Amino acid sequence: xxxxxxxxxxxxxxxxxxxxxxxxxxxxxxxxxxxxxxxxxxxxxxxxxxxxxxxxxxxxxxxxxxxxxxxxxxxxxxxxxxxxxxxxxxxxxxxxxxxxxxxxxxxxxxxxxxxxxxxxxxxxxxxxxxxxxxxxxxxxxxxxxxxxxxxxxxxxxxxxxxxxxxxxxxxxxxxxxxxxxxxxxxxxxxxxxxxxxxxxxxxxxxxxxxxxxxxxxxxxxxxxxxxxxxxxxxxxxxxxxxxxxxxxxxxxxxxxxxxxxxxxxxxxxxxxxxxxxxxxxxxxxxxxxxxxxxxxxxxxxxxxxxxxxxxxxxxxxxxxxxxxxxxxxxxxxxxxxxxxxxxxxxxxxxxxxxxxxxxxxxxxxxxxxxxxxxxxxxxxxxxxxxxxxxxxxxxxxxxxxxxxxxxxxxxxxxxxxxxxxxxxxxxxxxxxxxxxxxxxxxxxxxxxxxxxxxxxxxxxxxxxxxxxxxxxxxxxxxxxxxxxxxxxxxxxxxxxxxxxxxxxxxxxxxxxxxxxxxxxxxxxxxxxxxxxxxxxxxxxxxxxxxxxxxxxxxxxxxxxxxxxxxxxxxxxxxxxxxxxxxxxxxxxxxxxxxxxxxxxxxxxxxxxxxxxxxx
Amino acid sequence: xxxxxxxxxxxxxxxxxxxxxxxxxxxxxxxxxxxxxxxxxxxxxxxxxxxxxxxxxxxxxxxxxxxxxxxxxxxxxxxxxxxxxxxxxxxxxxxxxxxxxxxxxxxxxxxxxxxxxxxxxxxxxxxxxxxxxxxxxxxxxxxxxxxxxxxxxxxxxxxxxxxxxxxxxxxxxxxxxxxxxxxxxxxxxxxxxxxxxxxxxxxxxxxxxxxxxxxxxxxxxxxxxxxxxxxxxxxxxxxxxxxxxxxxxxxxxxxxxxxxxxxxxxxxxxxxxxxxxxxxxxxxxxxxxxxxxxxxxxxxxxxxxxxxxxxxxxxxxxxxxxxxxxxxxxxxxxxxxxxxxxxxxxxxxxxxxxxxxxxxxxxxxxxxxxxxxxxxxxxxxxxxxxxxxxxxxxxxxxxxxxxxxxxxxxxxxxxxxxxxxxxxxxxxxxxxxxxxxxxxxxxxxxxxxxxxxxxxxxxxxxxxxxxxxxxxxxxxxxxxxxxxxxxxxxxxxxxxxxxxxxxxxxxxxxxxxxxxxxxxxxxxxxxxxxxxxxxxxxxxxxxxxxxxxxxxxxxxxxxxxxxxxxxxxxxxxxxxxxxxx
Lengths: 615, 581
Fold this sequence. Notes:
By secondary structure, chain A is α/β, with parallel strands linked by helices.
């Protein structure tokens, strides 16, 4: 963020981070990495027939193309130079056929590869999306959204680009170059040797070019990633930038990043331009050599004009693909770098809520007993937030969990929904370890209502129903009315179909809360886990929310991280958490009598009249 | 296209280099022709001429390499420069957009414009311009040279070329439409991905992965379909152009052959003629590619323009950054302020006077106009002249940036950047010197702001204290912690007027009380005017004055005790909260 010299502490971390980035970018240099190529091909494998057809067309296209100079040679030597007109028409017709054949097969080839490529990348994108969505919460905690989005859009675009103008045409070029070498050496091997005399120069040039470009690309990729995450973040936080009138500060910071990116590109441009020009020059050198040696032999009568002309044609066809190699190399490099990152994401095996044994479902409707058995958890190894917590919750019981912030309350409920996995101990539902429940079962039975509910863009219906098949309009309306969100349906003529903006930005925090209650109620889970919002809203909404909570908990086993006294008072039991452990539990009265942590919190609360929350 | 003007000299130089490169290249077939014609005479001097021609070609090729490199470097860099300055302009324009813009535009789509679409525009100006200029030069000179050798053969050989123009024109519209469709869909997909990732916890707890996946698959399939349409639109261009160009060679072979046999043309001329046609064929082949590039570039440019052409209400700064009189004290005066939003009267004839150094709380139900009032003071809502006066100056006349340096802000929805806590707190400070946040004095001041905002205990627990990285790439702070960092940020900027928009709503009541208790003396000592919105009576009761808003109007004004005695809206809110406790 800042350009100021970092303190020793941040300095150390920054350098550690840069070296980590460098290591991960280190592999980006390879344009043709065999393992990566194999994996890319495994994506295209389902479309192997298309691809095979495309590949089979390649030699045909080359043959059609390379027959043309030969026909030219025949025309010159057998007709034009010796003045024999009959037969020239036939050669002309043959030439036309070759042209049509060349571009006809070329067109089919390109269409086949592109369709195969697009299909494969379409599959890959769906796979990456599906894989990502099934990763655990901890992964999202440390991975910026912008980066994941890049994997699914630009990176896969780079791979698609490779299919339209990279990989397969490289194979085509290889075939073509081989054919040309065969053609010219069989026409006249001495002349062929002479015209190829400067070709080794190309290898040297290409080697130097590769080295420069590899470094340049690594640089470009890093700078581009930096630019994208800067943009993503500052677009999201634009109101803060504006409120502090820091537009110019932020613009200055962006200026540096933007300029760096341009700078990084300049190097690649130079290398690319030089390669292109040198290959062109080598092509002309070859023509000069051809003329010099061939001229002498024509003069001596050991060579015909036709062969010379055919050679000139062959050579121009020989150098064109080499000249465009830099463009293809660029495409390949970008594709490889992209593939590497995409596959790295696919290789991330941190599945969300994995099941250990062949899982058997819970009985359709039994009263669920919830039990925590010596559960420990740490987000970071050195900082445990839950220390061997054991707790039993009876069917139908309402348990309020209280404690100061950082006591481990939220962690407890997140573990119960398996957003995170405990580092030790186990959680049991009806005596069954929740890790052995079939996928989806746990979350059908247990619904968590978060403190800061997330609404998706769409309609009120799509947010309340959230894909539950049983969610009929009547049921959704009923759920909304019961939790006190009915006015959100009636204030708008569209009712349930009223639109919801990105992240529900057209609803207030309290309204979002109410809608999330309706969503939970519509789901009708056996166990409700509620992380009660601390955020204060206006008293009227507050009352609505309170009523909503009551409605939501009715007839369910409920675990509530409670901040409101009304909620706490209604609970069957209060569990007080402190420093990752259960400090005390009991009813309100019992705990007051005990005169411990809870009583202390309560006294504090009583001192502040009007404040309606307790944490 | 005024934005391209700075790059015009560069582009012109590039075009010149390109012209020279081509002139040198075109000389090669000419030399070839002379050498071959000499050889056909079987003269003794022929060999010397051939050697001379070969050496000339070597020299030309070397010179060509140098100049060609220069032309490509210059033109491609011009393209990058245009991309760079457009991106800068876009970003600057985006910083000026009002909050309403960000409510209607998704970040994903704007990102797509800043990256993918801008990339397409750059391709238009780099390789696109290069190829178009190249094609024009090669065609111009090539046709002249061909004409000088044989007007008749030239006419016939170039006969199919108008077909290229015709076919190109026919494809243009389709190319543009399909390109635009593909790019729009990419924007939509980006938006969906961002949303799904942001809401991943909800998706998981509700087991919605497969449902969202179906939705994504539908978008993805649509994208595939659109891409395929583009492939089809593009696919025919190249082969058709190539076929037409190849037809030229066929005509040379067939007709030129007859000419030579009839003795109207030399073999050397025929070879040179063919070489020129080959020279012409490359730009012809590239034409299809360039056209696709061009259409993609235009489609991208249109999407970029949609942002560039947006009126920026905040632009009033640039016109009036003239050093007007300084804003005096933190006195606020509001006179008959009415604001309409979406056809609804959200503020209705609000008048208010706040003396410098006062702390005023604003209470009221959701939708009573509190936030709009604060937005108006911050310049996020345009207000008519003569309605808001800050420090005695009409707020509508104060450049926005100056206004916002004067008025500090801690919002309810606190946004933190991926930076350290210290950097986040220091974000609002304006003196360049203060951006050195690692100085002893600066660190002390940051810590002081953090302490006042009640962060001391949190900082002690964070792994690196003030230097802990937070935000997207760092530690995720809780809602309450984020709000307190945002408060510290507002305090560290030390504005004359401080606006707290329910900025401690996610902080528990006890901590809130502590923070307010620490805050009051600091604000009083510095004579800072404070406006705070809160739903908690406990938070507002100690304010110098409480303003109660209802239905866009000021319903009641007074101290806590006065308002209780008045038995109005405030008293009823107080009762409700008391009942809840």
